[in-house]
Structure prediction request, 251 residues.
Amino acid sequence: MSEKRIAVVTGASSGIGASTARALAADGFQVFCAARRSDRIDSLADSIGGTAVVCDVTSDSSVAELASAVGPRLDVLVNNAGGAFGSDPIENASLAYWQQMYDVNVLGLVRVTKALLPALRANGTGLIVNVGSTAGRNAYEGGAGYTTAKHGTKVITETLRLELNGEPIRVTEIAPGMVHTEEFSLTRFGGDQAQADAVYADVDSPLVADDIAEAIRWVASLPRHVNIDEMVVKPIAQAAQKKLHRGPIFS
Ligand code: 8X3
Prediction:
C-alpha cells in the first residue's frame, strides 16, 4: 500500500486555510493543520484525521517545530497564513500594522518555505501554493499596507519558480478577489462588524472559502509536470478590484 501524500496548510484555523485542509484531506492527503489557535486546529484535525500543529509563522522557533513535526518528506505546502490590518491612507498609516502585514504575508511565507523546502525536495516531487490576492495586482485607496505585502507574495512566488527551475517542485500562486470569510474583513477593521459587513453588502454571491480551497485542491491534483503559475479567482460580481456590482445577479 502506498504512503499517503502529505500536505501542510498554514493559517488553517479558519477561512481559506481550514477549507483547504478539509479539501486536501478529502482528496487523500495527510494534512498538517498549522495555526496559532490550538482549539480550532485541534477540532479541525480531529474532523479530517489530520494533525494539528500550533505554529506562529512569525516565529523562527515555532516554524522549526512545524518542520520537525512534519518530518523528512512533504508533498504540498500551502502558504495561506496572512491577513490585512487597517485601511488608512498612507499619510495616516499605522507602521505597526504595516510591520504586522509584512511579517505575516511576506516574512512568514519565506520562513515557512525555507523550513519546509528540504522536505519537499527529499520527497522527489513537491508543490508550493502561495495564497496571494488580487490586492497583489492592484492599488487601491486605504489598502497600501496590504497591497504592498500581497505584491510581495506574488514576487516571492515568481522568484521561487525561477530559483527552483530544474527541480521537481511546482510553484503556484492563487490570487483570490472578494472572499466572504468570517474573519478577513473583521480583522482588517479591528473587530468592527458593521464595517466588515459593509464590504460584502448587496454583493450577490461573493466567493466563499470553499471556492478557493477547490482551486488549491485542483492544482494539487494535477500531474507532477503541470505547473499552474497563477490563478486569479473573483466572484462574478467583481469585474475588477473595485468594480463591484452590488445588487442581484442571479434570479
Ligand atoms: C482580496 C482582498 O480586500 O484586497 O483578497 O479586496 S481585498
